[in-house]
Amino acid sequence: MTTQSDILAIGGGIIGLSVAIELKLRGANVTVCSRSFQEAATHAAAGMLAPQAEAIAHRALFDFCLQSRSLYPEWIAKLENLTGLSAGYWPCGILAPVYEGGIGDRDAGLDPNDAEPPAYWLDRDAIQLHQPGLGPEVVGGWWYPEDGQVDSRALAQVLLGAARELGIDLREGVTVEAIAQDRGRVSAVYTNIGPLRADRYVLTAGAWSNALLPIPVSPTKGQMLSVRVPQAEAAQHLPLQRVLFGPQTYIVPRRNGKVVIGATSEDAAFTPGNTPEGIHTLLSRAIRLYPALKDWAIEELWWGFRPATPDELPLIGPSRCENLTLATGHYRNGVLLAPATARAIADYLCDDRRDPLLDAFDPRRFDLPSTPPSPAMTSALTYPSPRSPRPERETAETLLHRLDDPVAIAGKTFRSRLMTGSGKYRTVEEMQRSIAASRCEIVTVAVRRVQNNAPGHEGLAEAIDWQKIWMLPNTAGCQTAEEAIRVARLGREMAKILGQEDNNFVKLEVIADPKYLLPDPIGTLKAAEQLVKEGFAVLPYINADPILAKHLEEVGCATVMPLGSPIGSGQGIETAANIRIIVENAKIPVVVDAGIGVPSEAAQAMELGADFVLINSAIALAKNPPAMACAMANAVEAGRLAYLSGRIPVQGGASASSPLTGRVGQ
Q: Could you tell me which pathway this protein works in (predicted)?
């Protein structure tokens, strides 16, 4: 089947339907295709309209959210008039209670008193007057009278009804398989029912966008539940009248007695289902905030997938295809930003107008530079990697700035490209000083050795500030895939116990060779496949095997970690040729792990185009580990800058650095 329309929206969630309705109202002929309108993330959302309560720190995002919130009354009225249905819009205000010592939590964002809309601080007595029954640990809170809520499930039905009333062509049960491109334009969208064609396209596929285009949108899983106010209480007066946006939880009362509680935030890929731990965490936080909930009946459990970007800002605007526009990556604010996004896309497509505020959300901010390499660079077969081409005229200042560019692993961003280990140090204090000197943000921890209090690992877990350092549990000591899978599960629980509840990272090591400690490729691939299915972000330690690296990427690993030489050997980068091939072909970060002995070898790994290096023995066993850690950090930065700069071609003969013409005597 082939169909042609003015505009085709790919994705039928709240953003896709809102954009389609706005375009239709402006006279466009619109088609929306969706695998299932009922499976859209909209149905999982709590529906808070809370730019102030969320204390959004990014100025452009905050202003865009305020703009969208102001559009809500008129937008909802328009939709409800079209359909005769209610979207459950309730401009009820939001309370943001805080606990002792938590008043400063909001200082990291915009000061509520500096924002244009009003916000009021309530002390312990005043906040209990606004909402009786808050937990005894609540010492006060902010009152945001202009924030509110909408019933997201009801809104989804209203949007579907409005689309049908307007005659929008809704295609449900359509699985998009590919976006075909020809000479910088989308030529068709290939689906399970055949190709769909349009003059212009809008990608609104939310957390699933990355499956269709290589854009940095990944799923962040959120578990939620609802409870029901007892009928006897609801008949007299709903005891909970305010949306409560508390520390790490929110409670959203509906006017029909349903109370929504959310939400976890998990880098679990598309792992479905509720977990006992997730629901327990939600309930314990909610009961602490509003104790009466402990006696109310649980009504429903569910989950959804937020579309996250590395900087947590949406992608709204043009793509590299001239007839493809993006409207995705709204993360926690899809419901709130629906009307403003719809208006912005319609302004752009129908009137060629673009609000300067949207510059912060330009999808092209994540694009690699597109300037082609010079002929000289083309002849240098090894530099730079096609994964990160170098602009010819990029200034030194720009390159230095790019050293601080964040790099994402499984949706979590890091600025330091040096990972360090936590083993082999002579003392815990020496380890702590070395980690600080390395400026690293990721530290590996051997799960078995910590759990067994192996020598050198006593109290290790408590010695590191896990609020500042991201734990990378590793399966060191595992000889089989089955062992590694069990230890990975223990590692995830260890991370949660130490406060990193959303940490699903694991450095996968399967090493059956006791002499050379070389990783088992078959066991590694087997374990990786299972752990990916269980929602882990898998970082596998491997031989520098480009074929294995590609297989691991294809099964869903978050990185590949080829060795430079045998672990702990200090032999340096003996596998440079293969690492170069892995870097050239990988679409996920490459971490050079094992064998680095001195800073020049760390720099060499980065010059090959690696995204990170992981160093343990070379630091821990140095005569002065903190000083060596600092040297390694500087070497990693130097190697990265050299890679971005682009080395000279390797030549067979000499080439004078001074010209041979114009010499004295000529």
A: Cofactor biosynthesis; thiamine diphosphate biosynthesis
